[in-house]
Amino acid sequence: MKSERFQHRHIGINAEEEKIMLAKIGVKSLDELIDQTIPQNIRLQSGLNLPEALSEHEYAEEMALMASKNRICASYIGMGWYDTVCPAPIFRNVFENPVWYTSYTPYQAEISQGRLEALMNFQTMVSELTGLPLSNCSLLDEATAGAEAAAMMHALRSRDQVKNGANKLFVDKNIFPQTLAVINTRAVPQGIEVVVGDYKVFDINSEFFGAIIQYPNSNGSVEDYTAFTQKVHAAGCKVAVATDLMALTLLVPPGEWGADIAFGSSQRFGIPMFYGGPSAGFFATKEENKRNVPGRIIGVSKDAYGKSAYRMALQTREQHIKREKATSNICTAQALLATMAGFYAVYHGPKGLKEIAKRIHSATALIADELKELGYTVLNEQYFDTLKIGLASGVSQYSLREYAEMRDINLRYYEGGEVGVSIDETITEYKAHELLAVFSLAAGRMEVFMIDDLPEKLTIKDEFLRKSEYLQHEVFNSYHTETELMRYIKRLDRKDISLAHSMISLGSCTMKLNAASELLPLSLGGFQNIHPFAPQSQTQGYNELIEELGEYLKEITGFAGVSFQPNSGAAGEYAGLMTIRKYQESIGQGHRNIILIPASAHGTNPASAIQAGYETVTIDCDAHGNVVLEDLQAKADLHKDNLAGCMITYPSTHGIFEKEIKEMCKVVHEKGGQVYMDGANMNAQVGLTNPGFIGADVCHLNLHKTFAIPHGGGGPGEGPICVAEHLIPFLPHHPELDGSTVNTVASAPFGSAGILPITYGYIRMLGAEGLTHATKIAILNANYLAECFKDTYGVVYRGTSGRVGHELILECRKVKDTSGITESDIAKRLMDYGYHAPTLSFPVHGTLMIEPTESESLAELNRFVDTMNQIWEEIREVENGTYTKEDNVLVNAPHPEYEVCADEWKHAYPRSKAAYPLQFVKDNKFWINVARVDNAFGDRNLITCLCDMG
Q: Do 567 and 674 sit in the same domain of this protein?
């Protein structure tokens, strides 16, 4: 018997509290509630076949052992990943700090000012280093950023180009192979033809709309693209550049020689390699392209009293809002890692970054000189940190590799027989000596390298050297000691609400506990310091982790195959649809191009379907939120010859388990389609039912929702897909793993593998019993809240037995009719109580969607109920005329500290009502930094860089 069970720490409701809640709901047992909630015909007849649950201590020991099986070598592979030095105050105060890793995407600006400022720092860093005025606040990784660049250039075609059918994209042959693979995957369904060649001899014509090059390129060569860029522009086309932020501290930035777009990875700004991720992709472009930029942009606006405030600008670009009109497949970014990269630039400043870059280049130049002395050939004349090396006479790749791996050194090995060496900031005199010794031994030389220092050496031609200044804003020139940085980070985190403060009741987003015991293994070097292209013989720990976790997810979903490559839920949707597409092509059904999507499906579904090259047809829902089966049947019949499939969210985004789900799957299958089940709400299925048993063919899993990976302010994410047996051959491949580029959707073979220990821990420590009980408690919590609010706000949708699933939609539209108070006013007022708003006006306009996870205690649920009830009374005060529609606590919310503490108070209600509406608020007040932010002003006056703020 274990002395302590993780289940009791993770699940917030104990047995006594459960009885109280069941009595409130009106059922005798938890099983009775589940029987009323989930249709009997989809209930599993047996439990999950998973290993016995581990205690937290046992899990820590297992992960230490697993990490030790990964062999940490000096990595000179490069190709987009580099060993780094993450400054301890950033790792300690951000990466390991729940205030930063448990916060939500900053849609609610007033309680996200710290994160927004940190992301503005990132944007400014990217913009100034690339020489382009507009940056977003991160994408998933470098390869998907490249695919987004291709899509954006395609969308920016001129009328004449569209009219003439210009559909060709040139990609230089010396781009990273994984980037090319992802661009190819994304290009095909969009009707884009990718032409790979040598930029030096490329002859552009009217069939092209854009070009993608790399600077420095995959071989490490620094090329002069000025004339090429001018030629492409003269043809009316755009130029996108994959680039390296560290290199740009020394090299002329792409914006200065005419590039329209710059993209890449910010991983080497202090983020561990993590076997491929997570790390933040970046994307910068010219001002005139702002309406087409993928992902999120942080801007500056003002609050109700004119105070400057950060906010997410141009929010309607988010694909789950635009649905089938979306032009991007980006929903999740990598906000936490972008924040860390931004702090890395803040900590080092422009001088520090340049010193790091100089040291990297100097070491590279020293090694190049010594290699030449040993008889090797350096094939790239101009370089920053990467050498492509022709082997000396009598030296083979095989022998060199043997010597290298004996000394725990990994090099890049080209198909043509050359060898690559990429130097990073961890280089030391000793490491340089060891690296050169490998080449010396392979060449049969017994050279003794006396490297007591890495002398400064600059081999870059003057024409390539950067002359312009960067990062001149005070934020990059003020916090260079640990004390100052620590205090700056603390100043920012005090402005944000996270799970460290209170329940985040977001429906559809599942902000559950990210247990410390699950996250601690991420600090182990054996998980951090592994390159994604390291030899499989060196990655036994990761191999075991991925294999075992894959088996667990297959058991939980009822499927036969799994891929961990997608870097987010939205990317998982896309990968699942592309898997269906390839399968249907293989059986001669590639013409099928219609995807049916119920109105109750998750908002990203239509966007992902469009990006995968499908046409979408909406299926109606009835007044109770259920899919109209007759409409599904009619539209499946209408499109039977071209029906590719149906995307179903289950339980639906309306928060209910529909009884006819098996029949829906049957209808689609009878017409030759595949069923894609969106796994966004999988946390209401685990242990009780599963997509495979229900009848689906593929699903993705949002690991940050169901399986406890932190949301991180908008990422990291991971969206593995699980599939039925017939779809396994068409799962995403990867050129560096198996040599195939079929359906490659991410830079790394296993996506953001570094965060998989979190999900592995969640499953291993809960075990079958704990996972199933967690699902039941999530459903219990939601039904408890539905019962608490039924006589005030009211619940929009319920299942046929009157129960909700794991989330519920509060009716707020009637409130507006009687008081003028909107759902947005309620959301803002919640901030005064120290709560993040529920999901606002989604999926039903004018409502609030609430999801209480299994991790919340009854005490916290009751605080939330008391808060919502108090707000209800405040609404009544407006209805009965106690306060006017123009001046009340709701329309003026939130009330920032500077307003409450001001000498002058202009409102009819007292300060105490604004600031301390309930006793628990008075006991633990979260003070807000800004009043209600003016979104429209921010969009009319778009400022996305600190240097533009004046």
A: yes
